[in-house]
């Protein structure tokens, strides 16, 4: 049994212990928000605005509400997926697979993820009030599935779309988007529709302020990261290949690809190599006296011998992953030697 003095000391100490616990919890929460897990930190949210009148009136409000389910799945993306799945037909049905309704759920998946969105006591895949929130919930589940498998090669939302179409098992088996024509076309079509028909497309260079250019911000966060030949994906640094085996980082073209993708809110995916990036953008050449932040700079005596690409950063500077043994850096532009020229990323399709 405690003494009176012990009881008084305990009563005095208890509030202070409670305050300390609250402070620890508060700072842990702040750390989670500021730091987040790696996949969240690398994701850039796309536009939530539904543009034009392409979305049927009956679907607009349910889509905007469903898009609050998780930050990665936006209203334009959901709208594009519904057009691709059923062409906005709530009664669509696929006899071969059994897929049914607006979002074309197969019976087993609907049994697990189907929601009674309007509270009428029945979860019906042909009822838009049920199908749309169920679609968003399942897509967000697939996003979490992808986050739990960092070994998968590809961008977060693209992999989730592929899993919706081909199944999570196939995405895991192929370590990325399965090489099925239907699935690759599915991902590309939805991205295209989401970025043009239902959402806002992106034009690099439309903002002349380097400080507010999302492409540059996406690249600058990796300054000081190792160069790794063959390394780097749309999700961030990855292990390189010989001569950089064991080094985690980006090479020149993967850094540019990452920056354009994330700086555009996921609306533009460049090809992987510097030569392919030049071929994809060569129809938009930029004279060196008209460079804007976010433009691409290429080196090589001919288009077929291009060996390096960098991002123009404004004020006579460029951001680049230079070569093995060095780190990503911001440095004065080099327009001498075998500098080939500059291009600008201008696209309505979202994938070039």
Features of the shown structure:
alpha+beta, elongated, Lysozyme, endopeptidase fold (from Nostoc punctiforme), two-stranded antiparallel ribbon, 12 helices, 6-stranded antiparallel sheet, disordered N terminus, 352 residues
Note the topology:
Layout: H1 4-35, H2 38-42, H3 57-66, H4 75-86, H5 107-113, H6 128-147, H7 156-166, H8 168-173, H9 181-196, H10 214-220, E1 238-239, E2 248-249, H11 252-263, H12 274-281, E3 285-286, E4 296-299, E5 308-314, E6 317-320, E7 329-332, E8 339-343
Antiparallel strand pairs: 1-2, 3-8, 4-5, 4-8, 5-6, 6-7
Structure annotation, total helices: 12
Number of domains: 2
Corresponding CATH architecture of the largest domain: Orthogonal Bundle
| Approximate shape | elongated
User: What fraction of residues sit in β-strands?
Assistant: 5-15%
| Helical percentage | 40-55%
Main sheet summary: 6 strands, antiparallel
Which regions contain 5 or more consecutive residues with pLDDT less than 50?
1-46, 206-212
| N-to-C CA distance | 77 Å
CATH class value of the largest domain: Mainly Alpha
CATH topology of the largest domain: Lysozyme
Q: Give a count of the beta strands, DSSP E runs of length 2 or more.
A: 8
Compute the gyration radius: what is it? 24 Å
Strand order of the largest sheet: 3-8-4-5-6-7
Q: Quote the average pLDDT.
A: 83
Structural class assignment: alpha+beta
């Amino acid at each position: 049994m405690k003494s009176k003095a012990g009881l008084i000391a305990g009563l005095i100490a208890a509030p202070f212990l409670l305050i300390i616990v609250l402070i620890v919890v508060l700072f842990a929460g702040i750390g989670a928000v500021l730091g987040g897990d790696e996949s969240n930190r690398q994701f850039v949210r796309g536009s939530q605005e539904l543009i034009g009148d392409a979305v049927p009136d009956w679907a607009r409000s349910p889509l905007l509400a469903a898009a609050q389910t998780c930050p990665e799945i936006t209203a334009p993306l959901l709208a594009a997926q519904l057009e691709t799945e059923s062409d906005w037909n709530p009664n669509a049905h696929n006899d071969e697979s059994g897929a049914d309704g607006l979002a074309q759920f197969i019976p087993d998946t609907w049994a697990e993820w189907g929601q009674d969105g309007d509270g009428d006591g029945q979860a019906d895949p042909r009822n838009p009030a049920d199908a749309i929130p169920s679609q968003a919930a399942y897509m967000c589940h697939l996003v979490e599935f992808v986050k739990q498998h960092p070994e998968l090669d590809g961008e977060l939302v693209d992999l989730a779309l592929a899993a919706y179409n081909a199944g999570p098992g196939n995405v895991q088996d192929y370590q990325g988007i399965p090489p099925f024509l239907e699935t690759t076309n599915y991902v590309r079509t939805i991205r295209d529709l989401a970025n043009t028909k239902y959402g806002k497309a992106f034009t690099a260079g439309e903002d002349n302020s380097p400080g507010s250019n999302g492409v540059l911000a996406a690249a600058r966060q990796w300054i000081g990261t190792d160069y790794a030949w063959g390394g780097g994906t749309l999700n961030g640094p990855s292990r390189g290949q010989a001569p950089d085996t064991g080094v985690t980082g980006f090479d020149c073209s993967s850094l540019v690809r990452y920056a354009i993708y994330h700086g555009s809110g996921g609306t533009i995916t460049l090809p992987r190599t510097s030569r392919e990036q030049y071929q994809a953008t060569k129809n938009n050449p930029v004279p060196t006296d008209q460079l804007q932040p976010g433009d691409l700079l290429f080196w090589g005596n001919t288009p077929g011998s291009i060996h390096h690409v960098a991002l123009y950063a404004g004020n006579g500077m460029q951001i680049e992953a230079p070569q093995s043994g060095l780190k990503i850096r911001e440095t004065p532009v080099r327009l001498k030697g075998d500098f080939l020229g500059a291009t600008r990323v201008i696209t309505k399709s979202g994938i070039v």
